[in-house]
């Protein structure tokens, strides 16, 4: 199919609707899987963009494709999947050779980090995916970011090793099984203090974590960008199903105006 732009067009690489076989699936711990697909032509994508993915043989269950952040682009793009329901369960049990429809790249990726700000990546659980893509991209430009990664336990930190290879990694777990004991915001407090707020935080994780990080960044005079979480129907601005309350009233559409948006543009309390 011909490449297309989302209605809220942003000048990035054009989205393509592809049918691609699964090349391999690797389990990461007991609940996460990295799926790598094989394409005829390389997929161009920016860190923070996502794909709408669906098994070609899924029938009507589930009917809609599932949004998944891209972990890598190129000829063998990959995604990280955490099982939460039927779609992710089917992804996590797929076999090599199985065909998938893959609509990508979609949405707005992360915007650049100003030269006078330290990039600080704040990840919660599966939110690591678009941040690892970003960390690799920053590292290739000679800007190693600080990465703050939190989860309830050490088992909820997939790809922590890969992140540690391209970022200065600091970990927090609620049960103390890895890194500092407590929430990832505790690590951020220290970074904001040490840098006097001269950072740009890139944040992806549970909504409560992103809300807390945005509040801390505002108070410290830091910049903050978040990757929005929303249930998506189409992924390209047609169904209006991914509305997120906007600060000052109205809504932001996570798929076409995001998923990466200014953290202060979201009304976290509504
Ligand atoms: C831009 C974007 C990028 C994402 N990237 C990843 C990723 O890299 N890896 C990953 O594992 N997941 C990611 N997700 C979340 C993923 O799309 C959902 O977990 C998935 O669609 C659930 O489908 P399901 O059929 O397994 O579960 P369902 O049966 O549809 O839902 C199971 C539970 O998960 C909740 N849920 C479903 N979709 C979402 C959602 N989008 N956000 C929050 N809660 C949801 C439902 O409300 C329900 O409680 C991303 C979501 C978005 C919007
Ligand atoms: S998912 Fe359809 S408009 Fe965003």
Brief account:
With 270 residues, the protein is an alpha/beta fold. Helices cover 20% and strands 31% of the residues.
Q: What is CATH's topology name of the largest domain?
A: Rossmann fold
The CATH architecture name of the largest domain reads 3-Layer(aba) Sandwich
How many structural domains in the coordinates? 2
- Classify the secondary structure makeup into a structural class: alpha/beta
Give the radius of gyration: 18 Å
CATH superfamily of the largest domain: Nucleotide-binding domain of ferredoxin-NADP reductase (FNR) module
How confident is the prediction overall: mean pLDDT?
Answer: 93
The H/E string reads EEEEEHEEHEHEEHEHEEEE
| CATH C-level label of the largest domain | Alpha Beta
Helical percentage: 10-25%
Number of strands: 15
Walk me through this protein's architecture:
This protein is of the alpha/beta class and 270 residues long. The chain has two domains: 16-106, Elongation Factor Tu (Ef-tu), domain 3; 118-227, Rossmann fold (3-Layer(aba) Sandwich), CATH 3.40.50.80. A seven-stranded mixed beta sheet has the order 10-9-8-7-11-12-15, sandwiched between helices. A hairpin with a 3-residue loop joins strand 1 (16-28) and strand 2 (32-37). The protein has helices at 86-92, 128-140, 160-166, 184-195, 207-220, and strands at 16-28, 32-37, 50-55, 66-69, 78-82, 99-106, 118-124, 146-151, 168-173, 180-181, 199-204, 223-227, 243-245, 251-253, 260-262. It is globular and about 50 Å long. It is built from five helices and 15 strands. The structure holds flavin-adenine dinucleotide and FE2/S2 (inorganic) cluster. FE2/S2 (inorganic) cluster (FES) binds next to loops.
């Amino acid at each position: 199919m011909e490449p297309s732009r989302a209605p809220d067009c942003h000048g990035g690489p054009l989205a393509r609707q592809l049918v691609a076989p699964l090349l391999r699936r690797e389990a990461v711990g007991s609940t996460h899987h990295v799926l790598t697909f094989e394409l005829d032509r390389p997929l161009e994508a920016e860190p923070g963009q996502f794909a709408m993915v669906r098994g070609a043989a899924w029938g009507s269950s589930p009917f809609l494709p599932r949004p998944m952040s891209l972990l890598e682009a190129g000829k063998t793009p990959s995604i990280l999947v955490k099982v939460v329901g039927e779609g992710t369960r089917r992804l996590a049990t797929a076999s090599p050779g199985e065909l998938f429809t893959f609509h990508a790249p979609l949405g707005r990726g992360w915007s650049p980090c100003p030269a006078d700000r330290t990039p600080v990546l704040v990840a919660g659980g599966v939110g690591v995916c678009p941040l690892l893509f970003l960390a690799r991209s920053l590292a290739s430009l000679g800007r190693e970011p600080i990465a703050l990664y939190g989860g309830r336990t050490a088992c909820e930190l997939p790809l922590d090793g890969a992140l540690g290879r391209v970022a200065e990694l600091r970990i927090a777990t609620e049960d103390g099984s890895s890194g500092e004991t407590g929430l990832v915001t505790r690590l951020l407090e220290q970074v904001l203090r040490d840098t006097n707020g001269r950072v740009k935080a890139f944040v992806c994780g549970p909504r409560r974590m992103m809300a807390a990080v945005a509040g801390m960044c505002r108070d410290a005079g830091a910049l903050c960008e978040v990757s929005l979480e929303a249930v998506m129907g189409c992924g390209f601005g047609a169904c209006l199903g991914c509305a997120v309350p906007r600060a000052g009233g109205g809504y932001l559409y996570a798929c076409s105006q995001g998923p990466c948006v200014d953290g202060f543009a979201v009304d976290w309390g509504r």
